[in-house]
Automatic annotation (TrEMBL):
<dbReference type="InterPro" id="IPR012312">
    <property type="entry name" value="Hemerythrin-like"/>
</dbReference>
<feature type="domain" description="Hemerythrin-like">
    <location>
        <begin position="6"/>
        <end position="118"/>
    </location>
</feature>
<protein>
    <submittedName>
        <fullName>Hemerythrin domain-containing protein</fullName>
    </submittedName>
</protein>
<dbReference type="Pfam" id="PF01814">
    <property type="entry name" value="Hemerythrin"/>
</dbReference>
Amino acid sequence: MAQQDAVTLLDDDHNEVIRMFEQYKAAHDDRRRQVLASQIRQELLVHMQIEEEIFYPAFQQATGDRELLKDANKEHAEARELLAKIEDDRTNAKLMLDLEDAILHHVNDEREKMFPKARATQGLDLMDLADRLEARKGELMAHA
Ligand SMILES: [Fe+2]
Ligand SMILES: [Fe+2]
């Protein structure tokens, strides 16, 4: 059983990736930056996938809110586009800063709109969702 609910679990991922961006910006050598960039990439791809597979559909079903989902999916698509550009141009620190901006914006939307609504919605079992998110994340991380 998960120790915390789905919203806390997802927001822990957010804090983790924000911390990784801070480390990336503070890193002095290219090698260290490359390592951090690829960790950020993995963290973001897994996080977006578990949200899309598990959390977003459950949220949409319980709330009937299509607008928040549409925005969230659009922002995930933008993040994936930036990640693809970064793969093609690994030394481009400007793209990493663009990615950080996009992620901060998206995280803010989830924190201020989606998560409070999820917590306020009856019929959304956030503990059960946390178990499913955690299990799926473990699987994806093992194969990443
Ligand atoms: Fe998201
Ligand atoms: Fe998220």
